[in-house]
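Troubleshooting log. The previous structure file for this entry was overwritten by mistake, so regenerating from the original sequence record. Sequence copied from the archived sheet and checked twice against the printout by T.R.
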Amino acid sequence: MAQSLFVAACSLLAAAGATGSPAATDGGKAASVATAATTGSGTAPAPNVPHGPYGLGTPVTPRQVSGWNIDVAPDGKNLPPGSGTLAQGQQLYTAQCVSCHGAKGEGGVGDRLAGGFGTLKDRKPIRTVGSYWPYATTLFDYIRRAMPLTAPQSLGDDEVYAVTAYVLSLNGLWPDGQPANAQTLLKVRMPNVDGFVPDPRPDVP
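Regenerated output below.
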């Protein structure tokens, strides 16, 4: 059925290209057949469903976009509400992170997370969260989107704040007793924050 409708539509559209608009020559039957061929039925789609020039797709709702729009900028833009503690972060790190990154962030199957200060100019620099990463917000963003490796995006925002604070504490960058939230995270000045330069290329926004 679908194949025959498709063939019929193609034939009529080809004829229309040579003789004029289908609506002008056959009373609109070609348009009806074409619609049936592309939608799988003999009736036109509902008028409240836009399909664009190719008759495909539907608009994305704000709720659908919000599930993907979770990236956090260096200046903290898009940090979510929530709060965590070092104690919670230690518990989560022990349960979810130690097997790859080591008990003290020394690395293993996964990357080393702690230490390496003063080595970036060495022949073999040790690039860790503490020695290399320029922003604490980037750590929150990465953990939120990609960790733990076996179940990315499974942590709640409170849990991500807690783990972020604990990883920073392994580098001596988080004070004991301070809760982790959008405000306190922005107060962290990473040691290598001035080790990066702006990208001057004119084609990069």
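Residues 1-47 have pLDDT under 50 and may be disordered. Archived copy saved in two places this time.
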